[in-house]
Amino acid sequence: MTSSNNEIQKMYDQIKEYIFTNPFAKKNRLPVEEELKSFVYKITGIEGDFTHKPFSWNNPFKYSKDPIWTDNIYHIIFIEYGIRISININIIKKISILDRILIKKTGVEKPLRLNYYCKLHNKCFEGPYLFITELDPYSLIYNKPDEEYKISITRGNNEETNENYFQQKSIGESLLYTNWYN
């Protein structure tokens, strides 16, 4: 919920203020899920949403019309690209920069927890973490796995060994691949 960038900090402040002083909040004092989602879209100008695909080596992301909205998910908004990715801790740990910022919490940048009220369940929930960044998705390089991590794929008489977590080298390449082939 902190950023060294003044524009991003202003967005965090507006979202935080909306969460805690929401005029639509009733006794629960939290915004309704749909209202909070809409507010985040309007403040950040998101144009495209992607979510991770578990166990997918060649295409780790897919388009998303409704991003995952649970407490074990991180929403990362690349503000200069107008895109958001929804990923879990497993993916974050495979990218050193995000692991240091979001999991180990080193540095100035901090995510904001998006708590909300769900009408369907009549209950308050801890929502995803929101991280707004100027980082280029191409700069978020996937780590190299340990030596014992190798995936062998046999197709007919051909055997391939994959020594990386994903076919692409960075989040930017993975998103480009998703745009190109889907």
List keywords for this structure.
182 residues; two-stranded antiparallel ribbon; 5 helices; 27% helix
> How many separate helices?
5
Helix/strand-derived class? alpha+beta
Which term fits the overall shape? elongated
Note poorly predicted spans: none
Instruction: Please tell me how large the radius of gyration is.
Output: 18 Å
Order of strands, widest sheet: 2-1-4-3-8-5
Largest sheet: 6 strands, mixed
- As for the number of domains, it is 1
Alpha-carbon distance between the two ends: 33 Å
Average residue pLDDT: 85
The helix content is 25-40%
Task: Write the element-wise H/E pattern from the N-terminal end onward.
Answer: HHEEEEHHEEEEEEH
Strand percent estimate: 15-25%
User: Count the strands?
Assistant: 10
Would you spell out the secondary-structure blueprint of this structure?
Layout lengths: L5 H15 L12 H12 L3 E5 L8 E3 L9 E6 L4 E6 H4 L3 H8 L8 E2 L2 E3 L4 E3 L3 E5 L17 E5 L2 E5 L8 H11 L1
Parallel strand pairs: 1-4, 3-8
Antiparallel strand pairs: 1-2, 3-4, 5-8, 6-7, 9-10
Helix pairs in contact: 1-2
Protein model, in words:
It is built from five helices and ten strands; from the N terminus they run ααββββααββββββα. It has 182 residues and is α+β, with helices and mostly antiparallel strands. It has one domain. The protein has a six-stranded mixed β-sheet, with helices on both faces. β9 and β10 form a beta hairpin. The longest helix has 15 residues.
Summarize the structure.
With 182 residues, this protein is α+β, with helices and mostly antiparallel strands. The chain has helices spanning 6-20, 33-44, 89-92, 96-103, 171-181, and strands at residues 48-52, 61-63, 73-78, 83-88, 112-113, 116-118, 123-125, 129-133, 151-155, 158-162.
